[in-house]
Structure formats: structure tokens, C-alpha cells
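One-letter codes give the sequence; the fold follows as C-alpha cells. An example follows:
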Amino acid sequence: MNAAPKPVPDGPPIEMPRTGWLESLRLALEYRHRTLELLRGLSDRHGRAALQSTGLGPSLASLFGPEANRFVLLDVERQLSAKRAWDFIMGRVFANGLLLRDGADHRQHRRTMQSAFHQNALRAYVERMNAPIAQVVDRWEDETADFRAFPAFKALTLELACSIFLGVDLGSETARLNRAFEDTVAASMSLVRLRIPGLEFDRGMRGREFMMDLFGSMVPSRRQGDGEDMFSRLCRAESEEGDRFDDGEIVDHVIFLMMAAHDTTTSSLSSLMYELGRATDWQDRVREEVSAPRLAAPGFDDLMGLELADRVMKETLRLHPPLSTIPRIAERECAFDGFRIPSGAMVAVYPLHTHHMEEWWTDPFRFDPDRFAPGRAEHERHPYLFVPFGGGAHMCIGHRFAELQIKAILCALLRRYRWRLPDGYRLPEQQAPIAKPTDGLPIRLERIA
């Protein structure tokens, strides 16, 4: 089943196939809603690499497949910049987050931040999740006639983020914080990046300013306290070398981490509920797995031991990776697989595309969690074939936390409800900047007696 690599051209690097101007413009304008279709068309027409330009920014070198993922994510020769790429996309709305750093600066900040994600911290976060998850999921019984999964998960994950990340209940400010996150994420894809009142980008900048004021006001007390929430841990975090974050760095990291945890987890949970609404046999199998009495309030070890839930989660992340595209900027001219990459070009790989490649996956558009079962393990056919959380030095620092939170919510949901999709329903999905259903995902919930 493993695809044989295409031969690398002999001699010096050759020019990449170039897309036409109209094709490039269509890709830029339609990318949010037709991501996978457009990427598959691009790779079918041009092969393993293609260069495009619309005049709206740097040229874009699109690279396809697991070897491309290895080249970009591992970046052995340190010739690709994550900071410059993400700064171009969202640097003004999510400035100085961990993803927007390179080299020694990135390593220093990641080491300092690591204490907020070590296993003891994750165990404490899991213990704090169960009560708020149970309270919110129980309330969904009143909404079974017209339940929309995406906004329901969005409200739940924001409540959890406020509790676990911030250690506070923001009350009426929660709705405003939710709008701020939505506006900042939308602004990261804005074509017109001007502070014109009423436009998408200006709303995003206003959302950032609100979060800077809100979180900045909390820093002094958190530095002096002994809280176990993630914000407090970051305020007190210190690397082995004695490095600590200043106030501005803490606020930047919290804004980025809150966005990443809140939006990507909401995306994954919505996709998971959709797939289990289609595959009700798998819904029943995982429900049986989580029915043990101890899993009414699962701990860290309980969640880590859920084998079927783990397969279902991974298969959902394969089909619907929250982040469809991972960009870099070429710091100097370089080459991939015999093709020249110009200095200053945006270089992108696509988890969404890789996860649907017929050369590597059996029937890749089918929901088949057993492809992750021991003995089959299709994701192990190449170390960079399954990359929902990226890889290399910039692999998502919170991926283990995200997996635990998804499983904890899935446990609570399956123990309380059965669900199915409306007759004939197919998911209308926006795949960029973060995957989500455009209709809120209507679900028919049935309370289990």
C-alpha cells in the first residue's frame, strides 16, 4: 500500500510547475470553503509541488505528501521560518504566540512553557474538567428538539478554557470573550487588513485589544498566587536556566493558547459528533467502552486507556484536521525533491490533503477508526503521514491536553445521549482557517434513560 516515491530529478533544482494567474486567484478566493477539492485538483494537475502567485503577497510553494511534511515540519537545515509565515497571516491579531517564534527564541519560550503541560499539570486539569462538563452536557437535554452541536461545543470549551486556563468564571464577559476569539480568527484570513470600522480585520483587532486588557489586568495577582490553572502556572513558570516570562509575553501566550484550545477543540468535537452521527455502530461501541462506573468522572489514566475512543478521535482528526494548512517562509533559496523554492516564498504543506491520499490510506474518504488499530496502523506507514498537530519543533505543545479534553467530553456525551443526523444530511464544512460546520451542525439528541 505504501506509495513508491517519485524519482528526484538529477542535477541542480528545477523550476516548480506554475499555476496560472486565474487558477491562483480562484484558490485564494475560494480556499476557505473548497479547501480539499482545490488542493486535490492542484496536486492532480501539477504533481508533488506547485508555485502560485496572485500579487496579494509572496509566491506560494505548495508541497504535497508525507515527505513534504517531513521536509517542512522537521526543517533539518533551518531554512524555513514559522514566525515570518504566521506573522504574515495573523501576526497582528495573535502576536508573539509560541507558533510565531523561531530558533533559539522559540526553544526558550517552549521550555519555559512546558511546565504548564507536564503530566502532573495535565492530571490536575483533567480533575477540574469533570464537574463543568457534566453540568453543561446535562443542560443539553432541554435543547434536544433543536440542538446545534458547534455552538454548544463552543460554549462548553470556552467555559472550560476560562476554568482551566484562567481559573475564573467570567460571567457576562464570557459571551464577549467568545466574540473576540471568533473575530480574531476570522481576521487572520482577511484579504483587506485595514483598521476600517465595520470590516472583519478591524473587528479582529478590537477583539485582541479587549483580551489584552482583560488578561493583562490579571497578571500581577497570578504571579503572587499559588493557583493551579494554566494562566497562573505560566505567570510563575521558570525554565531550568531561570528564564521567566514578562507581563506582555504572558498575555500573548495566553491569548494564543486560549484561541488554539478553544477553537481547535470545538472543531474536533463537532467533526467527531458528525462522524458518530453517521456511524452509529461506532457510537454504540464507544458508548459501551465508556459505560464503566468509574468513567462517570474519568481521571487521566482512565482517559489514556480508552482504546476505541482513541481510534475514533484519531480517525476524526484524519478526516477533519482542525488546521488544514501549515505555512512557512523560505529564509533562503532551497530545494524540495529536486524543485527550487525561491527565497522569500511562502511554503505550505497540507495535513488535510495528506490525510486523504489514496497512495497511503485504504479508502481514505471512509470513516474507518480501525485503520488505527494495532496490527493495521495505517498511520505508521510514514512518520509524517498523520500530522493533525503538526510535527517537529513546532508540534502543538497542547496536543495531549486537547486529546484528554476531547475524550472527557465524549465520555460525558455518550453516557447521557444517543444521537443521529437529520435524514439525508451532509456536513457543509468550512475547512480554513479552522475546520467548522457552516450551519452549526444540527443533531437529533435522545436522552438515555
The two ends are 45 Å apart (CA to CA). Residues 1-5 have pLDDT under 50 and may be disordered. The longest strand covers residues 442-447.
